[in-house]
Give the backbone structure.
Amino acid sequence: MLHPAYVFDAYGTLFDVHAAVRRHADAIGPQGQALSELWRAKQLEYSWVRTLMGAYQDFWQLTEQALDFALARFPQVAPAVRKRLLDAYWSLDCYPEVPSVLKALKAEGVKIAILSNGSPEMLASAARSAAIEPLLDAIFSVDEVRRFKTDPSVYEMVTNSWRMYPEKISFQSSNRWDVAGASRYGFHAVWINRSGQPDEYRDHAPKAVLPNLTQLLTAN
């Protein structure tokens, strides 16, 4: 049974956060995977710490800071690659099934949106680059509330804007911590477990666990 609305996390769910490093793998060398993973980990860590401190900086600033830390951690990677990696982050590859899944949902007449830590400019650029912008009814950025996920005010942006009860909204994320936050808020939370990670936050379980978005239409 379809829900009236489907809301997607952006990074790791619709867009491949490791695509930027893969795109410049030859220039980076053998430390590429480790650098990419550290870049992502620090990007998220900084968002949580900033929210706890009440000292908001937008996600692009945190992305730059996280990359600077990762490059400092792997000094064998040429500093000149920094600009190329940051430029690539504005046009990350989307996962292969994303366009067809969003088109199928759109054909069913449901509302579709992104809800992300990303800044409005980052998200608009990524959606435009992946050619999914026309399929979206809204892009919700944490910039509006100046707090990052999993703060409840982030999820509340959707219910306030669309005047829907949380349980009417199917929320999809590849980040288990994000699924926990969405589940606690009351969304129908679906974990897109792309890399086969073990479960956690068992007191805030997802409604479904899928390996990718393809099964979304039949799993709800």
The two ends are 6 Å apart (CA to CA). Residues 19-89 form a domain with the DNA polymerase; domain 1 fold (CATH 1.10.150.240).
